[in-house]
Structures are given as C-alpha cells and as structure tokens.
Amino acid sequence: MTTQDNKPKLAKRVKNELKFRELTVKSKQKVAECFYRIVFASDQLAGFSSQGFDDHVKVFFPVGNEKCVLPEITPEGIVWPDGPRPAARDYTPLAFDAEHNELVIDFFIHDGGIASLWAEAAKPDDTLMIGGPRGSLVTPVDYAWQLYVCDESGLPAVRRRLLSLPENITVQVLVNCNQPQTQDYLSEFTNTQIEWLNSESIAAKLQSLAIPAEDYYVWITGEGAEVKQLSDDLLATYSLDADYVRAVAYWHKK
Fold it and tell me: Is 227 exposed, middle or buried (0-12, 13-18, 19+ CB in 10 A)?
C-alpha cells in the first residue's frame, strides 16, 4: 500500500512567523478592466515570504481617513488596540520583489465590496496593513497534467501559478465568469487551454475529462458550496487521490 510519506510529489506546508506590516501604495493600474493592480512598498516587507501560489495575506482596510494601527503579537495571542477593528479580506500576493521590498496585489473590481471601493479610491502614499501569510502550501510545478477551476476571486492565484509552470506541462483552466472583458486577464498565456464558462458548463465539463491515472493535480476554488460539490463529484467520478486535489472556498454566499 502506498502511504502518504512515500507518495511522489506531494505539496508541503511551510510555516511563517506571523507579522503585521504597514504598506504604502506606490502605483496603481487597471488590468483587463476588471482588476486594480496595486504595487505596495515598505521597509517592513523585509523578510516577507510567500512560497505558495495560492497563499493569502489578510488585508486590513483603514476606517475613514484614519490609518490602521498595528496590533501587538504576544505569547497569549494578537492584541488589538482599543476601538473598532479595521475590516479585513484575504488576498493572494501576486508578486514580491525582495530587493526593493515591493508587493503586488490584484483587487477584483465589483460593486459594493470594501476592498474594491478602497482600491478604486487608492492613490500613491495611501497606506493599509497586512498580516501573514502565516504559512504556505508549496505545490510542485511539474505534474504532467494539471487542471485549475476558479471564478474571478481565484484568477490572481491562477495567474501566479501559470507564470511558474514549465512550458512542457499540459494545463487546463476553467473560469466561471460572466464578464467578457475578464478574459483579457490571462490573454498572454497562449499555450494554456483556458475556457471561460458558467457554473453549469463547468460542472458538465468536469464529467468528461481525460484525467491520467497518475501524475495529475487539480485545484478548485470559488464559492464554498460550489467548490465542495465540484470536488465531491470529481473525486467520485474519477476515483482520484484526494492528496492531489485541492479544493478551497475563497468566499461564501450570504
């Protein structure tokens, strides 16, 4: 019997020291009419580490014109200053430049979102705070067959992953998307099979795949209930090894 210890090419978890950092906006641009790409700079980014393509940092947004105040990390836990805590959302670190202490995050543009509204108004020298990543899941890049399923919330992680993969890998990407302009976000990856679908089409597509018996990797993210259903159906249909199928809820319907 094959045990987890001797399975080939398993993802490995890496822990990071928890730190909170204040970042300053250096630049902002709109990407594919659906994301604000913001470059943050800060000397506090020294030692920042993000080894997993779907890592997340907790981004804290200031209340009104007030700056976020960093909490204190004590042996008993995280101690926040008095007053209301800033609103927080999870975001993928798209890129990090250790030489210049710069971090890039893409913010999806959508109506009513706290993060989207902040990003729309953001300008150079504005500040916010991040925490983490508390750890990374380091996933090998050389699986022969790879499938990525997401909605807009997972596109930065997919983009980061595609930038890291060898050219000889067979990669399929299925995106649950209702905004045609979003397709430009991954337009440079011309050697990758990318399909822009809806929920029903993705569910049907997953029932007609030609997944090899070994050396595969599947990543599914998006709304929690949909992610679980897609993952459960996929595992049942193909008798896949769950250690090579990663299903993560990036958000939940209210």
Answer: buried
For tokens 């399923």, the residue is 149
> Is there a contact between 116 and 107 (Cβ–Cβ < 8 Å)?
yes
What span, in angstroms and rounded, lies between the C-alpha atoms of 170 and 176? Answer: 20
Rounded Cα gap, residues 200 and 178, in angstroms: 12
The number of beta carbons lying within 10 Å of the beta carbon of residue 217 is 22
Residue whose C-alpha is closest to residue 145's, from 228, 244, 52: 244
> Phi and psi for 147 in degrees, rounded to 5?
-130, 135
180: left (phi over 0), alpha (psi -120 to 50) or beta: alpha
Single-letter amino acid, residue 103: L
Gap between the Cα atoms of 32 and 184, Å rounded? 5
Q: What is the pLDDT of residues 196-228, one digit of tens each?
A: 999 999 999 999 999 999 999 999 999 999 999
Q: Report the 3 state secondary structure along 111-137.
A: CCCHHHHHHHHCCCCCEEEEECCCEEE
8-state DSSP, 233: H
Amino acid of residue 130? I
> Is the whole-model pTM more than 0.70?
yes
Strand residues in the chain grouped as ranges (E):
12-15, 20-31, 35-41, 57-61, 72-74, 77-79, 87-91, 95-97, 102-108, 127-131, 135-138, 145-151, 170-176, 193-197, 216-223, 245-251
The SS3 of residue 13 is: strand
Q: What strands lie across the sheet with 170-176, from one edge to the other?
A: 193-197, 170-176, 145-151, 216-223, 245-251
Residue type, 137: L
Q: What is the pLDDT of residues 55-79, one digit of tens each?
A: 999 999 987 667 778 888 888 889 9
